Amino acid sequence: MLPRFLQSQCRAQPLRVGRLGAETFAVVAIGAIVGLVGNQLKESGNRFDVTRDYFKTAKSSGAKEVEIFQYIEHAEMMEVYQSPAYEVGQCIFIDARNDAAYSEKHIPGAYQLDHYFADRYITELLPVCADAERIIVYCNGGKCEDSKLAAMDLIENGVLADKIFIYLGGVVAWSEDGLPFERGERLSGDMTYGDE
Amino acid sequence: MAMNSKPIQSDNARVGWIRLLDRSGYPLLIARFVLGVLFIQMGWSKIDDPVAFLKLLREYEMFPTGAFVFENIIALTLPWIEVVCGVLLIVGLFVRGAGLTLLLMLTAFTIVITIRAIGMYKTGDFKSFCDVAFDCGCGGGLIGMCRKIPENFGLWLLSWIPFLSASRRFCLAGVLGNRPISVGEDACESPNVTAKSKPT
Predict the structure, then answer these.
(1) pTM score, whole prediction
(2) Which residues of B touch A38 (CB under 8 A)?
(3) In a domain, B7, yes or no
(4) Does residue B151 sit at the A interface (CB-CB below 8 Å)?
(5) Are B113 and B136 in contact (CB under 8 A)?
């Protein structure tokens, strides 16, 4: 004889609104609890903070965005990259993308500041920013707003806003021009070009 | 057993072919596995990086600026709800609840994806609607809307099966005990329970 759950007579309970509601609530509750508890079990640096406004910008905090951010064009970015100021650290680049994207490729010598986990990077970055005369922040390019959010992190941590520039072209524009990228950690010396 | 076969046949004769097909348990089995595997895969791809999913959610502009906590909770829990639904469907527990959850989610997803796709198309940046493509946060990366919307509609239709099916064949729920399909038939109950429950 077949086990009873393999028999075609095995049938669901009659459809009742109360039972259906309870089942649906249970399904959603199990998922939500597992998600929230799983997040709490992560290390504090990797934890997703549900109470944080991750997209708090100059605009949403009431200030005028144009007064805070300055922008740098691709051509000028090239000049900076080739200038002695970049060599000696008077001018620095900050990559505002996540670990995976940064590790895959970043502008040679760029530091990293992932806005969403800023605590991991900010302590190391602040002295470097204090010494720099010009700080250029970039992300992927196009519509990405991580560079502005990372720039806000720097300003909130006391870095002077007039030293900070946003490179809107980002990795996409840099790549399209066939310019070099560095792979892995900062100053790893492992170079690649464009879309390689 | 011979005594039990007669009521099943007479019961089957009264029902239509859709019910007969449903009672075979195979449509439910197929729907459970297709939806289960897909939703586990879609949810799992987002679980590891709630920030990336949050960014994609924001692009829909569904929530007011101040509702960031709500938005964060959705970004954190929705992928897990998808995975839980998938697992429950595959093992065959809370099948109706999981089916309804998927139906509600797919209805909401399909509406917001369609609204966004129409909005993008109206900008005039695309020659045809089928050229509209974006990462909808569904777990598959960049996807064309002429593929995604029918795909979602197909999944939406499929989700009605676990929601409405009267069968619990091949389900863990059947092992744990459900009511029999025909009058006087106790096939889903264990023999001990059956013996006790029969009127003397």
Answers:
(1) 0.79
(2) 80
(3) no
(4) no
(5) yes
B10 located within any domain: no
Cβ–Cβ below 8 Å for A27 and B172: no
User: Measured between alpha carbons, how far is B3 from A7 in angstroms, rounded to an integer?
Assistant: 17
Measured distance CA(B72)–CA(B10) in Å, rounded: 55
The two three-digit tokens of residue B172, written as one number: 């863990």
Pairing of strands A91-95, B133-135: unpaired
User: Residue written as tokens 């889903």?
Assistant: B188
Q: Which of B49, B54, B92 sits opposite A54 (nearest CB)?
A: B54
Select the residue from B11, B101, B192, B194 to test the A interface by mutation, using most A Cβ atoms within 10 A.
B101
- The gap between the terminal CA atoms of chain B, to the nearest Å, is 18
Beta carbons of A23 and B80 less than 8 Å apart:
no
**Among all chains, which residue has been given the structure tokens 């300055």?**
A70
pLDDT value of residue A188: 86
User: Nearest C-alpha of chain B: how many angstroms from A128?
Assistant: 27
Q: Is residue B169 part of a domain?
A: yes
Contact residues, chain B, for A26 at CB < 8 Å: 94, 97
| Domain tally, chain B | 1
Amino acid at B2: A
Are A69 and A166 in contact by the 8 Å Cβ rule? The answer is: yes
Instruction: Tell me whether residue B1 is in a domain.
Output: no
Find, in chain A, the residue whose alpha carbon is nearest to that of B23: A8
Q: How confident is the model at residue A86 (pLDDT cuts 50, 70, 90)?
A: confident
Q: Which residue has the tokens 């870095």?
A: A159
Q: Please tell me if residue B23 touches chain A, with a CB cutoff of 8 Å.
A: yes
Determine the straight-line distance between the first and last CA of chain A, rounded to whole angstroms.
Answer: 62
Q: Which domain holds residue B177?
A: 15-197
Instruction: Name residue A122's amino acid.
Output: I
Candidate ranges A172-176, B10-14, B62-66, B83-87; pick with highest mean pLDDT:
B83-87
Of A11, A22, A55, the CB nearest to B179: A11
What kind of fold does domain A65-193 have according to CATH?
Answer: Oxidized Rhodanese; domain 1 (3.40.250)
